[in-house]
Each structure stands twice: as C-alpha cells, then as structure tokens.
Amino acid sequence: MGRYILRRAVQAVGTLLLVMLLLHLLTTVAIQLNGNPAQAFFGDKVATPAQIAAVEERFDLDDPCYDQVGNPCLGPFVERLGQYAQGDFGTNLRGREVADIVATAAPNTLRLFCIVLVTWLALGMVLGSVAARWRGSAGDHGIRLTSVLIDAFPVFVLLIVYRYVVAVPLHGWAEDTFGADSWPPYWFKPSFDPDHPWATVLVPGILLGLAGSAAFIRLVRASQLESYQGDHVRTARSKGLVERHVVVHHVVRNSSVPVVTAVGLTFAEALGGAVITEGLMNIYGMGGVLWGAVRDDDVSLVLGVVTLLAAVTVVVMIVVDIAYALLDPRIRYE
Amino acid sequence: MRQARIATFAAGAAAVALTVAGCSPSDTDDDAGPVTLETWISQDMDTLFPGDAGSYDPISVLDVVYDGLVRYDPETTEPYNYVAESIEPNDDNTVWTITIKPDLTFQNGEPVDAAAFARSWNYTADGDNGLYSNYFFSIIEGYDEMQPETDDDGNITAPGAADELSGVEVTDDLTLEVTLSSPFAGFATMLGYTGFFPIAQECLDDVEKCSTQPIGNGPFRVTEWQQSQELTAERWEDYPLEETPGYDAIHWTEYAAGETASWADFQADEIDLSFPPTAEVEAAKNDPELSQRYVEAPGAALTYLGFSLYTDGPWQDVEFRKAISMAIDREGIISSLGSGQATPADSWVVPGGVPGGEAGTCEWCVYDPEAAKAALEQAGGWPEGEKLQISLGDDDAEVEYFTAIGNSIEEVLGIPYELDILPSSDYFSTRSAQGFDGAFRNNWFPDYPLNENYLSFYAAGSEEDSQFGWYSEEFEDKLDEAAAAPSLDESVALYQEAEQILAEEFPTIPFRWSFSATYYSERLDNVVLNPFSGAPILRAIEITA
C-alpha cells in the first residue's frame, strides 16, 4: 500500500507539471495573439509607451517574449515554478495575491459542494436503493420518471426561477413569520451573504444538487441491482441473515465503489464548474474567478487557480483509489 | 472501522445542519443598532488607492472616504473649494497658489497639509510606479523627468530621472504653489478628481496596505473589506467638515454581474439602491408604488464612432462620414434596445452635464435618409463588393447596438457591413497602434466636469499619434488659446469654439450618451444622482427610520 501511494504521488507531480506547462503555453499564446493586458488597464484612455511599459513591469508582463508570437516564454515559466516552490503564488493582473483570492473563493465553492454532495447522497442512496429493492414496482417507475424529468431541467432555469420568482416572496414571508433576527430569512436570501455563508448557500446548493442527482439515482440503482444478484448476497440470505443486514452490509456497501468514483470525479468538476450557480447567486467562488481570469488573460491567476484545482483533483483521485480498497475487500494494492 | 466512518459522516452532516439551522444569526441589525446604507459595487474593484482608482466603483467609494481640494456642485457640476481655502491662478494660468483649510487631519491623526498633497501627487506622477492616474499629472512641470525611458519595442531602459514634480512646491504648511508646463484655465476643476486626493505618510509607507485599508480624510472610514464580497465603511466621528450624512455606516455588497444582479436583493429589501435587469425594466416602470422611488439623469459618457483616417478609404471624405452619421437612426435604435437606457447624442460634449456642454452642436447627427443618400453620392459612393468593417470590443450589449447601427447604415445607404469583434485587450492595442480599417467603436467617460475633457484627447500633435489618424492645427491652436484664457468662463467659451471645429471637420460620429437611473428603498430620502458620474450622491442621502 505504501509503495502504491508513493508511486501515485510521483505520477501526480508529473501530471501537475505537465498541466501547468500546457496552461502556461495556452495563456502565453492568448496574450501574444490578443494583445497585452497592460493596454486594457487604461481602457479608453490613450496611454503613452512609457505608461504601458511601467504597467507591464508592475504586473510582470515586461518580458519581451510576450510580444513574440510563438515564443513559449519558458523563462517566466521557470521563474514562476521557482516562486511556487517557495509558496509564492504571485498576484493577479491588478496586484492582488492569488493566494488571497483562492483563500476567499475556495471555501465558498467547497461549501456549495458539501451541500450538493449531501443532496446527491441523500437522494441517490435513498431513491436509488428503493428503486433497486423494489425493482419493476410503481415506485421504481416513478423514480425513473422523476429522475428523467430532473435531468431534462437545466440548472440555470431552476436557479433563475428560484431567484426571481420564489426567493423574494419566500424571504419576505420568512421575515414576517420568524422575524428578521432568525435563520429562515437567510435561507431564502436571493443572493449569497459572506457573513452567513452556510445559510445562504443552502438553497442554491440543494437546487444544484437536485439538478445533478438524476445520474446518481440511476447509478446507485444499477449497481445495487447487480449486487442483489451476486453470489455473496445469495449466500448471506441462505445463512439466514435478516434482510436488513443483507441490504446494508452486503448490497449497499458492495455497490458503493462506482458511487465513490462518481463523487470523486464530480468533486473535481464541481470545484471549477459551478460557474452558473455561482454567477446567478452571486457566490464568489472558484468557477467565477477562473472565468474572469481566462477572459482577462490573467496568466498568474489562471495558472495559480488551475494548478490548485489540478493538485486537488490528483489528490482526490488517489483518495478515491484508496477508498476502493477499504470498501471492497477484493481490491488490494501491491 | 465501519461504524467509525458512518459516525464521522453523521457528525459532518450534523455540523452542517447545525450551522445552517443553528440558533440565530449573530449580527442582525436590531432597531437600536447603527443605521447602515446598503448598496452595491461590482466585484472587480481591486484598489482604493486614490492614484490608482480610475473606474466607477472605486471612485464612488473614495468619494465618501476622501475629501479633495474641490468638490462639485450636484446641479451645475461646477467646482467649489472644499479642503482648499482658495485656489488662485496667476495672470496666464501657469502658476496656481493653493491654500488649504487649517486643522484638517487624516483618519489616523496625521495633518492634511500641503505636504500631504505633494506626496500623493509625486507618487502618482512617478511613472515608475505604473499607476492609473499618472497621466493627469502630465500638465504639471517636471512630469516628463519622472517617466521611465523606453526603447522602440516598448521596454524600459532606464527609470525616470526625478522622483518629485519640480512644479509642485510646498511654500508653507498650508500652501502649495503649482507650476504647469503650459497654461490651463481649468486646473482647479481637475483638482476634485480622485487622483488628486491627499495621502497620509502612513499610507505612502505601505502603499499595498493602503490600497485595501485606506486612510482617508473624508466622512467615512473603511472598517472592513472582504475583497470581491463586501465592503463596510463607518462614519468617522471626528470629521471636521460639514458634508457628512446622518446615517452611521455604508455597506457595499459586491456583485459579479454589477448593479442589475442586485435587483432581487432590492426586491427582498436587502439593498437600498438598485436598477433592474433589462427583462424587468418594464415591470418596474409600471409598478405605481415603485416608480415613486425612482430618479434618473442623463449620463456623461459618450459612445461614438471613429474612422481609420490613417488608411485609404471612402471615409477620408467628410461627406461620406456625414452620410454614415445621418444614416444612423439613433432614436429608433436606442428606444428598441436596452429599454431606452441611453440618450441619442448630437454633440461631443455632454449637454447640461458639464460647463460648456450644449446639445445640437453636431449638425449631421440627425437621422435623415434622403440627405444621407445625397451625401454618399457627393462622396462618390461606396466601392462595389466591399464591406464596411466596424470594429469593437467583445461586449454583448455593445454588439447589439452596433449590429443595429450596421443595419441602419445598410438599410439607408446600401453599404454592407461586417462587425469585427475583438477581445478587449486586443481592441485597445489595435486602436492605439492605428490597426483598424474602417469604422470602430469608442467610448469616453470624462474624468472631471469641464468641456475641455471631452476635446483635449483629440489633440495628439500629429496624425501618426492620433488614435483616429486625425490632426487639425486650427483645433489644437484653439485648445491652447482656451487653456490660456484669463478666466474659466472665457476658457469654456473658447473650448466651445474648438468643439465647433470638430463639428465641421467631423472626424468622429457621436452616437449615444449614457443614462443613469436608480430605484431606492422606502426608507431613503433625498436620493440625487451626480449629473456627471451618474452615481447616487451618498453624502446627500437621508435614511428615515
């Protein structure tokens, strides 16, 4: 097990370096083709060459390679790697620490993901298990129909309707009913409130989770059905174990491997992929930060954020692989 | 092991549930608490350092955190002395003596004196620091010596030789003598701009810190800024001057999508000032109760069309430019797009918004298809098979406007067009490198309320240095004459004459003025928009119970 983890860690570092180099090249080409971001700093004002040069220097864009299309700009890349090694993630185009940006945005995204995950697991495990346990029943068909409906409903529609149609009256109702000094009005606040992050991320998280739960329900159902037909379940039953024990210990547990895989994969995606939810509900999160950074050719910020996301993804994948071994006694890493 | 895992998960879920459902929010306002104005800014505000803050959001925040030498009358936009006791020019407007009111301090106790202004101006004027407002100081003697030297590729070869403006002299504690590099009658008007605010020595010692935790001399102190999320400023109890409102604090929520994103919160009574997204504009207008709590004012930002007068093409002929201008149905386009949140422009200086601004100076800004066709014919028509390229930056709302402009031109004159949409950094660098071929979008948001500010950027000194490829000696002479006029009024009148030259030579086509409007909550009173910036004047707002 120890050697396995070590091998995976070495692979991870390699993957990270590759991802960073690729990103560096892409953003560099973007600057070379799109023109220097220093120019955009002045907007409609016409800046003199000296002003542009000073701003380029201030934001580390003064390397002449950024003006030469096709130049891979390896100098600044190596320099940046050195800074990363020392824990310095640099600043964005306007001088704000990338570490500070991530420290503000990542917790919000993680909160959102926590709620989404709980929603997925709750809906997926319960409805999926019910559908598998009573396969072919009216309940099974009802759950399948519901999950198809949910899947067909885009998350942004759900959120826009919630924000503009449902949240405002609910918020007013909650304030009148429970008083302004209580939690319910915060749950239905139309926008995120950084002073009450958990309360205001709850409903958007549940909605986002709901929208993504259909795949989860189907996954749980399919993998449990397989377990129900497994030899170990038949053996357990023939040993005379009570049905509850069989379901919880032999079906649910054994069918968790694909579920854990899905959670791991979606986690990585959720970190950067909740752009729409974050944007609509005004949650300052990683998705929005990355979106803005790419739009503004903000090399340091794109690299800093994506490096972090890539690092998290790699770690999560290793954790998922280890979790397999814990969940399924047949899996052993040598 | 298994039980432990389940227990951990249960504990985690319980923790989330408790936090979400727990007792009660800690900092909810109760009736006896401070009265806080709830408003919005955009999420990309990145600095509150006066010399580096050039956009709407930091300017509106700094307006309550700092006081300048002058402030502007909300009705006429004319400057009046505020921190300054007096501002007097010499006979030819080259040397200005500024006296500062005694006994003023920063929020940290340091004196607001002549040195406080000098240190701020020197720091911003120093080109090596790369600050946004640097170019404002080019009017002061000694500016050039403070700029870095660059080679032909735009790389810095040597830092600026000087660290201080030779034209700024502290003659005593409260007196500054400012020597300009050329006469300028409107200098006093510039002094209310953010870039001219004073800074404390403590601020200069740690500029980075001061950019997020400003040490102002205005009526509000920034107490907390969770950058990109929210900003809070509380009233400074020891504020010595008179322009301070009756409420206790201002809380800005930062929105990624700007003002309209705050509309749902406004409807939920969480925000006091807001404007609806396009889809909701009609509903808000038709709400009889809500429309009582509405103010609007014309804005001062001009969107206009320029031509690549540095390339060969029909646009070299002034008649062609007139034809294009008269073929644009400004009224029709503006009323059908963006819910009419703009005003058709028929001048280069905002009418009524700044001294010297008058409507109707552009004779050919009226939609007149017949006259447009005649002018096109006189210009020799449009080359067969070619398309008029209209370049602009990547912005959805602007693309809509310029598609409509293109359609209007095509419909009236039969000139096919093509939109050339560029990422904004590319757009700006192409423009300054004279890289367009055809027409292109421009936008001007003035820095200080004087008609000169709408005109002086046309004076590039030569065709090569102008972003439009336009140069007129007569125009530049007129600007010089106006700058040297003995009084501001005479100066304003001469600038109007310069606008007239622009109107005759017609290098650019005015299209629309921005438009400002806001709805406000029931508890607000005396909500007035600054006619110049369009922002609500926070210092004037009253909050009732």
Automatic annotation (TrEMBL), chain A:
Name the keywords, alphabetized: Cell membrane, Membrane, Transmembrane, Transmembrane helix, Transport
InterPro entries per the UniProt record, alphabetical: MetI-like (IPR000515), MetI-like_sf (IPR035906)
Q: Name one Pfam family in it.
A: BPD_transp_1
Please, one GO biological process term? Answer: transmembrane transport
GO CC annotations? plasma membrane
Query: Where in the cell is the protein located?
Result: Cell membrane
Q: Outline the extent of the ABC transmembrane type-1 domain.
A: 106-324
The name under which this protein is listed is Putative dipeptide-transport integral membrane protein ABC transporter DppB
Q: Which family does it belong to?
A: Belongs to the binding-protein-dependent transport system permease family.
User: Taxonomic classification, please?
Assistant: Bacteria, Bacillati, Actinomycetota, Actinomycetes, Micrococcales
Automatic annotation (TrEMBL), chain B:
Q: Which InterPro entries match?
A: Peptide/Ni-bd, SBP_5, SBP_5_dom
Note the PROSITE patterns from the entry. PROKAR_LIPOPROTEIN
Record keywords: Signal
Q: Where is the Solute-binding protein family domain?
A: 79-462
Record's signal peptide: 1-22
Q: Does the keyword Signal apply?
A: yes
Task: Tell whether Signal is among the UniProt keywords.
Answer: yes
GO CC annotation terms, alphabetical? ATP-binding cassette (ABC) transporter complex; periplasmic space
Question: Which ranges form a coiled coil?
Answer: none
Write down the superkingdom of origin. Answer: Bacteria
Q: List, in alphabetical order, the GO biological process terms annotated in this UniProt record.
A: peptide transport
Gene3D superfamilies linked to this entry: Dipeptide-binding Protein, Domain 3, Periplasmic binding protein-like II
* Entry's Gene Ontology molecular function annotations: peptide transmembrane transporter activity
Q: What is this protein called?
A: Peptide ABC transporter substrate-binding protein
